[in-house]
Amino acid sequence: MQVDPNPIASGVNHVWVLTVTFLIFFMHAGFAMLEAGQVRSKNVANQLTKNMLTWSVGVLVYFLIGAGISSVVGGSADPFAYVSGGSDSWIGWLFGAVFAMTAATIVSGAVAGRAKLRAYVTYTVLLSAVIYPVVTGVTWAGGFLTEIGPGFQDFAGGMIVHGMGGIAGLTAAWILGPRMDRYDDDDGSVNVIPGHSVTFAVLGTLILCFGWYGFNVGTAASVFVVENGELALAAFADTVGRVALTTTLGMAAGAIGASTVSLIKTEKVDTLYVANGMLAGLVGITSNTNAITWTGALVVGLLAGGQLPVVFEFVERKLKIDDVCAVFPVHGSAGVLGALAFPFFAVPGYEVSFVAQAAGVGVIALWTVAATGFVFGILKLLGQARVSSEHEREGLDITEHGVDTYPEFGGPDVEGTAVRADGSGLRADGAGDLPNAGGIKMVTAVVRPDRLGDVKTALAQVGAPSLTVTNVSGRGSQPAKTGQWRGEEYTVDLHQKVKIECVVADVPADEVVEAIREAADTGEPGDGKIFIIPVEDACQVRTGVRGTEAV
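-> structure tokens emitted (551 positions)
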């Protein structure tokens, strides 16, 4: 039986492109976790919100304006044909859109902790509508950079997507200025501000690495082609295997390069540098992965990972730019390195020019700096770029979104009522005397945060469920520790605790103390202390009742 191969080729190619497109979209989960882990706990919801809005706002703008602008810059006669072009055009547009949104979301990590949400969304709109489309217009869409010698070569966006995003993030962070307390006011020395979760950062890294196979391997967009009426392999024939191999080697080498330099600089293998190094290695290989030798992939990956700690320190200490999530050394400088290194490691016979690569890098960098600086500069002049110092201190989760990402006082919800001997009056002890000699006492306990749930339950069981809980930090017998964040050491001598205040009248304070002690005890230094303080009087706000009845 004769079967028309054209529908088969078209169907398989569509399924392939859509599958890798969805894989690239899943990278947004990786960016969200990576960035959330590197910011302080009070800014996590803000970072997650920015990642979701990047996609939601950006993809609409890219559909309505950005993709067309890219085609206009590239010289297309009908730039908005994709809007009504049918299935092929729509799938092609979506494949381009996930690349555009990757470039957009990179910026959010650089400006974390102090950018107004409206400022970030405004920039996302302009990046999706104009800034990124101009870059793709002069490159992938057929613009003038393709006419310099053999043309500027960037297979999957190492410079066009990641390099552009990293440079944009650095520029935005420079315009906004550093976070409060990032640099000492007296001598300008760097103060380390650790992120709240290395776990999240590593999870995000591994999700991004997984999605990157869609980014790189997926760019070999055609599985089948019809030749002389028969099916034949298209880009898969000689491209997809090399891309998969060099992507994997570059990723692994990036981690080795970053960890080696970290070990040399600090005598420790910093976990976050290893994670960031994997991504830097991937960025370095992304522009050249289709036509680079396997040895070249190892060298580029090692260099991209190795430059990470050096460039981050230069940006942080020399330029005094607060790039919170290290987006420039991970995406910017690694993207530049990969694009420029391409001619030196290309497979024999593949034509790529260093002059064309350098011209492309220069044009993209200059355009990105100018456009990003203009947008954030205008926003800064209007007073709309950065949150107030009060809001920054309190955290953007509360001030920008009204949410608390980590309600620290979680644990089981408990209820209880005070136990009274006669059902109405104060409970008497075994000798018939009133508890606390008929007075009011406050029991204040400073304990480990993870014991709070057990303490709440214990207090309810002894009939003292009413309490006030506060997040505190302090030091006592628990020894100080040395922490490390992206290769820099800092002293942790104030330990996180919770302070529990429980005012009792009809419950003996000694019972409350014993309940807290048993529930909070782990047997290790740093379990906390309990204090008992007499209270002169109490007043219930609603009724005005005074004394023990108010308690």
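The radius of gyration is 30 Å.
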